[in-house]
Amino acid sequence: MTFKIADRVKNLAGSPTVSVMDRARRLAAAGRSIVDLSGGDPDFPTAPHVTEAAVAALHEGFTHYTPSRGIPELLQAISRKLAVENGIRYDPGKEIIVMPGGKQALFVAAQALLNPGDEVILFEPCWVSYAPCAELAGARAVYVPMHVDTTAEDLRADLARALTPRTRLIIVNTPNNPTGQVWTAGQLQAVADAALAHDIWVLADEIYERLIYDGRQHISIAGLPGMWERTLTLNGLSKSHAMTGWRLGYIAGPAQLIGELLKVHQHSTTCASSFVQRAAVAALKGPQDYTEMMVRRYQARRDALVAALNTIPGVRCDAPQGAFYAFPHIAAAGLSSMQFTERLLEAEGVAVTPGGAFGAAGEGHVRLSYANSDEMLREGTARIQRFVVELRAAPASM
Ligand SMILES: Cc1ncc(COP(=O)(O)O)c(C=O)c1O
Hints:
Layout: H1 7-10, H2 16-29, E1 35-36, H3 48-59, H4 72-86, E2 96-99, H5 102-113, E3 119-124, H6 130-136, E4 140-145, H7 152-162, E5 167-173, H8 185-198, E6 201-205, E7 231-236, E8 249-252, H9 255-268, H10 274-285, H11 289-310, E9 325-326, H12 337-348, E10 350-351, E11 353-354, E12 366-369, H13 374-393
Parallel strand pairs: 1-10, 3-4, 3-5, 5-6, 6-7
Antiparallel strand pairs: 2-8, 7-8, 9-12, 11-12
Helix pairs in contact: 3-10, 4-10, 5-6, 5-9, 7-8, 11-13
The site of pyridoxal-5'-phosphate has 13 residues, from helix 5.
């Protein structure tokens, strides 16, 4: 038969982060010694009390559809968390939906908010799934560069240039994947002012919110004056509670808008897994010392990793402020980020993600995840050092 496929899917690239992870897994299965620093998956197990809650739910027979928005205990726990930790109030019955992962929440939000031809402002480098989710809704991404030293004034000027009558949505991700940048109040206010002046929705992706270092503070843009009405706040337990495989995320916003997202959610997934929702209640209501332990370990690993990377000739790495990625500058090696990634995997069996995958502003960098053991990070940086030193000694032969 003729292979006919929708243009919007045909033109869509697969996820570059998932493809590096898959390639590393294939090489490892074929017997290669692989140090995989590419994925954004905590190496810590899920806390025992969380797993036990899921097992108890399974034994109890809690294995059927739940209310589409989520079970009341979980919606209440999320509502309380958002009020206490983020200073933003949502009615658990009307203003929150639990979904199988934050990524699904992004997809649903894009379907609900965007028309073909609309534009979505993204701050690059940014996570690889924003633009494809916008494109699947027929919209297109417009990029604004964002670095640690981008001032609120720079942002205002850049946003003024990027905004058009077709701009429908601005996505803010703090702490940022891949740079770890934690947005300041001034930077968020610049976005809020643009959204208010031009009547635009904002999606705040706060999935790395708990992973912040050096005493920095996370600020939810929905809490800024006038912003609650126009903001969707996305979060989940994947990173904060080492629960990536459980698939549990949520999105909160004004009732009318959440009602529109709910239609997409009901027709695509019905509800998040029942027993996973019970585990999520345990994660949110139980002791938080497990998350605090992970953050301390990530911070120690970050410090060791950044120090090790900065000893490699031609490599420069700032200490990330949050999340669990280092984003070193590797352009001095004379390769594009994709070439660097491919040759590093080939020569030394180290999997990283090319910075170019996160937008043009990410070129010249690679992303390394320090959600990996100290031993893996030590071995990974030793191999990267060897790779770069050999590359500089004989660039043509590599
Ligand atoms: C910036 C960002 N947002 C959202 C997600 C989605 O996470 P999940 O779908 O596991 O909740 C990720 C996962 O890597 C991410 O990096």
